[in-house]
Design a protein that fits this description.
The protein is an all-beta fold and about 210 residues long. The protein has 1 helix and 17 strands. The chain has a 7-stranded mixed β-sheet, with no helix packed on it.
């Protein structure tokens, strides 16, 4: 499952998996990525509230490559793992992992392709540090970097375009910064590519 929960009084123990799986072009794969709380006053009629957010990784690398996985990493805050959700405030508390990995069940080509992952709705306007995206392909690993600028809201989709065409390549990890990317090939540990991803919000909630 994309997420799980266990009720304990007025609080719920929840888990957003740190490793998730995605099948390209599968509606079922996307629809299953949600985390909701339900409440009732009479034991029969329930109201449900989404407390997770959905990240869409739009990846573009060389057409000759296949994409195997993408890992989102933050330096502040928590994206996934185990934590507590509160029924009274209908909010998700702090989780336990600063990263979430999305494995492609069926590797896709490097032409622009989407991958979807369930994440915690962090308020990046208050958090420090960068956000990194490690895209593992058949030829190596691309590391994209961008500084967080938006507050993520529950029930929204956030788009992360990770394209080597639009951002500046650097040659060492010390050069990684907002708007840059690094590439490490399978045959060399000296090169890595890094790209800026703009966090365009799709202003449509999902549940």
């Amino acid at each position: 499952p994309a997420s799980s929960a266990k009720v304990d009084g007025s609080q719920v123990k929840v888990t957003i998996p740190t490793v998730q799986s995605y099948v390209a072009k599968s509606d079922v794969s996307v629809q299953g990525r949600n985390l909701m709380l339900g409440s009732t006053s009479n034991g029969a009629d329930f109201s449900f509230y989404t407390v997770g957010a959905l990240a869409r990784f739009s990846i573009k690398v060389a057409d000759s490559e296949t994409i195997n996985s993408v890992t989102m990493r933050v330096e502040d805050g928590y994206l996934a793992g185990e934590g507590i959700a509160d029924f009274a405030s209908l909010t998700l508390g702090e989780l336990s992992s600063r990263e979430v990995m999305l494995n492609y069940a069926e590797p896709v080509t490097g032409a622009t392709s989407d991958g979807w992952a369930l994440i915690a709705p962090l308020d990046f306007t208050t958090l420090k540090g960068n956000v990194y995206y490690d895209v593992v392909t058949s030829k190596g690993c691309y590391t994209f970097c961008r500084k967080p600028t938006k507050k993520f809201l529950p029930g929204y989709i956030y788009n992360f375009p990770l394209s080597i065409d639009k951002f500046t390549k650097v040659n060492s990890e010390s050069e990684l910064a907002d708007g840059k990317y690094l590439f490490k090939s399978n045959s060399s540990s000296l090169t890595v590519q890094m790209v800026r991803a703009t966090d365009t919000t799709i202003a449509v909630g999902w549940s």
